[in-house]
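Tokens in:
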């Protein structure tokens, strides 16, 4: 499972670098936020970030450490979530769900 999540995280990281290299972030943002489905997609994305943050906050025993993981999610996105799952998440979730 770690390899699958890690591989998907690396794929997402590669896509981000590709988009930075060839895309126009400002124009894409203007387009997305100017269309109803673009707005729905952004709300869906940030709801997913929030749900990931809740899972991490619940699973991390040290809430200060949890905050260190949570805050970058809202800027860097699911690359952070994938990294947390690979490094800490699977064992932390097992422990949290066992309680």
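Residues out:
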């Amino acid at each position: 499972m770690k390899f699958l999540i890690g591989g998907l995280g690396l794929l997402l990281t590669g896509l981000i670098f590709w988009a930075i290299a060839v895309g126009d972030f400002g124009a894409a943002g203007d387009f997305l936020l100017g269309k109803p489905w673009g707005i729905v997609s952004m709300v869906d994305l940030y709801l997913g970030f929030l749900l990931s943050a809740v899972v991490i906050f619940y699973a991390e025993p040290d809430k200060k450490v949890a905050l260190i993981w949570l805050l970058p999610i809202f800027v860097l996105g699911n690359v952070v979530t994938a990294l947390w799952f690979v490094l800490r998440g699977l064992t932390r979730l097992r422990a949290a769900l066992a309680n």
